[in-house]
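Structure in, sequence out. Go:
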């Protein structure tokens, strides 16, 4: 097809060009993951770039004005940016927006000039800029555009001709970047940008908007077998945040982050800033960042777990749950379980359950803070990012979540699973446990053991669906203060019940709704009621295993453990501090027993 002359471009052209470029990244994210060595060999650059472009694709619409469109793209990319390369790419788009004049259409000369002025933005954003990465490829591409902007009038011809420069620059990353010199790989982030431009050039040549719909049967490259270097990860957690209304400059923030880790990128502006840093202590880092500005978003990825998925995975079925799943960390690590944290907020302070706030810290805050904490569900994008990474390395994924009656987490996981399953053509099963805490933990543990035993994914899922009906939890509440503060019990009723000294026993019904199992006049009496009920069930069913839980009450947990062993002759799988998301309603001092009975 003969190229259509393009003396200028408008917003709609930019919109569809971006979609075409983004689709090319989505199609090749497995390949980008495969070659990811620098800065950390955690094989997620493709997933991170895919997340960044998805944020744009999902959140903007065509607009005829170029300036409006580039502004919308830049904002969406900054919010959805993920990983080192994703944040750098978002910063490039941020610079492009800042350096674009306010016009509905733009010429090649004006475009080339805005790209050139964007280069300092990406270099300044990186604390330690290194050549042979995406930075170099974008800079050399910009140099080519500016060398041609006056000689050739047509926009399309120059962009098409620039691909040879991009390919050459990409090939040279292998020799420029020391970390790549021992491999046959080019830089993964640079490869992502070149693929992005390849998609745009394909659109320029064909101008067929219908082709921009991603075909799930074609959008993933084959996963090749390859040898991995077992690079030691110095800083375990890939940590990101969006900070608004900063009280210090970006350079000051960059310096502070560099003292707490490496791979530091600070993108955006003082009014809204996206940070990226690899660190070992995300909880301490966020505690200090509270003084810098308002943290409206935070994300922490365990790069050791990510590396395990690539080079040390024990099985070919990935297992996912959320942070309301109460299992010991030893079991989570042993079975390589991917746990996604629920969001917790104490006023303006945002935390990630069990990641940037631990149970002991939480219960201390619960007693001392005047404002009762709030939770928010895990959003679809978070699951999309995780499933993209896991689908790059596993044959199938099983996710088991807290009751869908309590949170939208389950439904968001379902939506993300359906999307990524189509993209990767791999099965993703998402199961509503209709329970939570230790009961959820037992279901996850049983699934993990079956994965370890080599059972098929279909067999495991079928068993899990039956086991959901055999899982139980009984919670003994020490007092009603947290339930009253959290609105689970109305204040008038709560005051009356407290005055009478009532201690409720909470359980779950078969539909995943909370159930008042009974009232007693002391926690000791409520525990006796729980033990009696467990004995009655045990006459009809055998116990597969159980977990004891407590809210900052280890002494009480020891007494429950002793009684349960006396009754069953079985030691519990775990004795754990109950998930803060659950404990916030049960209250400090609560005790619980979760059981899974055999079918």
């Amino acid at each position: 097809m003969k190229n259509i002359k393009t003396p200028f471009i408008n917003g709609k052209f930019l919109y569809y060009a971006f979609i075409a470029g983004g689709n090319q990244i989505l199609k090749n994210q497995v390949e980008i993951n495969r070659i990811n060595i620098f800065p950390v060999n955690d094989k997620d650059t493709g997933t991170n770039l895919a997340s960044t472009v998805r944020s744009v694709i999902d959140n903007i619409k065509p607009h005829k004005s170029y300036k409006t469109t580039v502004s919308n793209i830049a904002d969406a990319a900054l919010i959805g940016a993920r990983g080192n390369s994703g944040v750098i790419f978002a910063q490039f788009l941020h610079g492009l927006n800042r350096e674009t004049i306010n016009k509905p259409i733009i010429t090649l000369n004006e475009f080339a000039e805005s790209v050139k002025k964007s280069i300092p933005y990406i270099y300044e954003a990186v604390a330690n800029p290194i050549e042979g990465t995406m930075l170099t490829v974008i800079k050399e591409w910009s140099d080519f555009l500016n060398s041609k902007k006056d000689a050739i009038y047509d926009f399309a011809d120059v962009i098409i001709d620039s691909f040879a420069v991009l390919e050459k620059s990409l090939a040279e990353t292998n020799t420029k970047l020391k970390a790549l010199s021992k491999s046959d790989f080019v830089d993964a982030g640079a490869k992502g940008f070149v693929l992005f431009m390849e998609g745009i050039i394909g659109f320029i040549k064909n101008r067929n908007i219908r082709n921009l719909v991603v075909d799930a049967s074609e959008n993933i490259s084959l996963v090749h077998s390859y040898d991995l270097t077992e690079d030691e990860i110095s800083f375990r957690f890939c940590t990101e945040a969006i900070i608004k209304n900063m009280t210090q400059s970006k350079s000051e923030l960059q310096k502070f982050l560099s003292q707490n880790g490496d791979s530091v990128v600070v993108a955006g502006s003082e009014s809204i800033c996206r940070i990226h840093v690899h660190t070992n202590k995300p909880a301490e880092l966020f505690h200090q960042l509270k003084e810098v500005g308002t943290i409206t978003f935070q994300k922490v990825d365990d790069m050791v777990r990510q590396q395990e998925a690539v080079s040390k995975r024990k099985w070919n079925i990935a297992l996912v749950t959320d942070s309301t799943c109460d299992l010991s960390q030893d079991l989570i690590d042993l079975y390589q379980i991917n746990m996604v944290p629920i969001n917790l907020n104490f006023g303006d302070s945002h935390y990630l359950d069990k990641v940037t706030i631990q149970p002991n810290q939480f219960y201390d805050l619960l007693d001392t803070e005047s404002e009762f904490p709030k939770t928010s569900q895990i959003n679809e994008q978070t699951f999309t990012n995780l499933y993209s990474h896991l689908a790059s390395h596993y044959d199938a994924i099983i996710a088991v979540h807290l009751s869908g009656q309590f949170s939208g987490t389950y439904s968001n996981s379902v939506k993300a699973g359906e999307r990524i399953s189509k993209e990767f053509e791999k099965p993703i099963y998402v199961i509503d446990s209709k329970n939570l805490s230790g009961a959820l933990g037992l279901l996850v543990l049983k699934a993990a053991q079956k994965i370890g035993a080599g059972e098929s994914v279909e067999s495991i899922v079928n068993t899990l669906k039956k086991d959901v009906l055999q899982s139980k939890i009984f919670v003994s509440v020490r007092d009603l203060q947290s339930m009253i503060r959290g609105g689970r019990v109305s204040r008038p009723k709560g005051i009356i019940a407290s005055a009478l000294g009532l201690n409720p026993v909470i359980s779950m019904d078969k539909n995943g709704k909370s159930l008042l199992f009974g009232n007693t006049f002391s926690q000791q009496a409520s525990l006796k009621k729980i033990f009696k009920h467990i004995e009655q069930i045990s006459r009809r069913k055998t116990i597969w295993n159980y977990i004891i839980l407590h809210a900052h009450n280890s002494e009480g947990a020891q007494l429950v453990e002793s009684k349960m062993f006396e009754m069953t002759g079985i030691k519990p799988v775990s004795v754990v501090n109950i998930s803060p998301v659950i404990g916030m309603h049960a209250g400090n001092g609560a005790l619980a027993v979760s059981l899974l009975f055999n079918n």
